[in-house]
Amino acid sequence: MRIIGGSFKGRKFYPPAKNWPTRPTTDYAKEGLFNILTNTFDFEDLKVLDLFGGTGNHSYEFISRGCNDVTYVDRFRGCLAFVKKTATELDIEDKINIVANDVFKYIKSCNQSYDYIFAGPPYGMPRLDDLPDLIFQHELLKKEGWFVLEHNPNHNFEKHTHFVKARNYGSTIFSFFEHPEQA
Fold first, then answer.
1. For domain 29-152+163-177, which architecture applies?
2. How many whole angstroms separate alpha carbon 141 and alpha carbon 37?
3. Structure pTM?
């Protein structure tokens, strides 16, 4: 795993992920996604939510590019410990809020809204298809914001009310969602 842009560009991480329930986004897919984001957002002004944060890959990328307000959510203790350790090593503890919680419980209890939400759940997760509805039902996304869901070809969101577009990177697909008045 490496950071592909910003002040930490080229920095490599080696999570002890031998038995972890994670599937880090490939550098190829992440680079494609961040090329789109770089042409759309001013990272310094973003409030970001990273759901199923895993190794922290996306959180670090945002902070490396100038984001000062990232909330990382995961429930796996090994990932949480790794992200805390990495945040200390990078001296970014003041920019990342690490939340140990089940993502679905977090969504229901969250009283904040975000400019950008990324979810990279396990592809086989039974409730993966519910995520877009939950994000909008609980008003987690700001009116001008984007929700990006990473999934495989077994899922298709093109008929979802908030769906805007999808980008394919091999077997990784990013589906983009916005409020209808934005699209």
1. 3-Layer(aba) Sandwich (3.40)
2. 16
3. 0.94
